[in-house]
Amino acid sequence: MSGALGHTGEAVAAKYYLKRGYLLLNHNYRTRMGELDLILYKDGGIVFAEVKTRTRSDYGRPAEAVDFRKQQRLIAAAKLYLQHSPYADASARFDVVEVMPVPGGWQIHCIENAFSC
Fold first, then answer.
1. Which of 91, 73, 78, 90 lies closest to 29, judged by CA?
2. Separation of alpha carbons 10 and 74, rounded Å
3. Residue 17 CB neighbours (<10 A)
4. DSSP letter string, 76-111
């Protein structure tokens, strides 16, 4: 996947959340444990969204790329983020957002609470 496609997918996913009343806190937040694609806030809770953009599903669903090892890195990165943020006591969830191009736009499949700590 090209970097441009990934960035476009993240922008599409961010717009999806913004339309639903979420506040975008960070985009591509980097820690020593890895990168968090989107960090959002709504109703007292934090959402860490991992965005997977694919042009084809030949190799399975995009969310399948978020395996156990990837989940553990995301959890560790999220814990680091929370330690250094004003949201340390907020509830948190992990979403995986699949973004795929379709004629005239994008197909978005958001898997809320895709995994937990």
1. 78
2. 16
3. 21
4. HHHHHHHHTSTTTTSEEEEEEEEEEEETTEEEEEEE
Nearest alpha-carbon partner for 100 in 60, 36, 52, 67: 52
- Determine contact, residues 46/29, Cβ cutoff 8 Å: no
CATH topology of domain 3-115: Trna Endonuclease; Chain: A, domain 1 (3.40.1350)
Tens of pLDDT, residue by residue over 41-97, are 999 999 999 999 988 777 778 888 899 999 999 999 999 999 989 999 999 999 999
CA-CA distances (angstroms) from residue 47 to 5, 12, 14, 101?
22, 16, 12, 24
Residue 48's nearest CA partner among 102, 105, 97, 104 is: 97
Residue whose tokens read 């339309």: 19
